[in-house]
Design brief:
- The chain is mainly beta.
- The chain has a single domain, classed as Metal Binding Protein, Guanine Nucleotide Exchange Factor, Chain A.
- The protein is about 0% helix and about 50% strand.
- The chain has strands spanning about 15-20, 20-25, 30-35, 40-45, 50-55, 60-70, 75-80, 95, 110, 120.
- The strands form two sheets. A seven-stranded antiparallel β-sheet has the order 1-4-5-9-8-7-6, with no helix packed on it. Strands 3-2-10 form a three-stranded antiparallel β-sheet, with no helix packed on it.
- Strand 6 and strand 7 (about 75-80) form a beta hairpin.
- The relative contact order is 0.25.
């Protein structure tokens, strides 16, 4: 199966910028991530997404999922579920382990669905 690979451009822009803000992610009282080295990915008309270095995530609170999705701009996404948040936390965390070149800076970073966790952003 051949997958279409699309390059971000004027019709579908993607920008990725580092942020000095402190970002804390919690679920059901547990701190899943705490980082001052996040990236903000802005894609077309979608809300901005914070990507957090995997090293700043408590992976003991995550369970690998069999779920995967495909984005023609970013590649294959892998998912984790949040152990402290049954049901609501299923497939709530994703990453692109081998992202396409245009977005390679999100390699080794993860993102959380904002409607399934509490994300606190403290301005630098």
């Amino acid at each position: 199966m051949t997958r279409e690979i699309k390059i971000p451009g004027p019709a579908h822009p993607i920008t990725i910028e580092p942020s000095p803000d402190r970002v804390i992610v919690r679920a059901n009282g547990a701190t899943l991530a705490d980082s001052t080295a996040t990236l903000v990915l802005r894609e077309a008309d979608y809300p901005p997404v914070r990507y957090i270095p995997l090293n700043d995530v408590d992976r003991a609170l995550l369970a690998p999922s069999d779920t995967s999705t495909y984005c023609p701009y970013k590649g294959d996404a892998s998912y984790w579920s949040i152990r402290t948040e049954p049901g609501r936390g299923e497939d709530a965390v994703w990453s692109y382990r081998e992202p396409y070149a245009a977005v390679d800076s999100i390699r080794d970073f993860v993102a959380f669905y904002a409607d399934r966790v509490e994300i606190t952003i403290q301005a630098a």
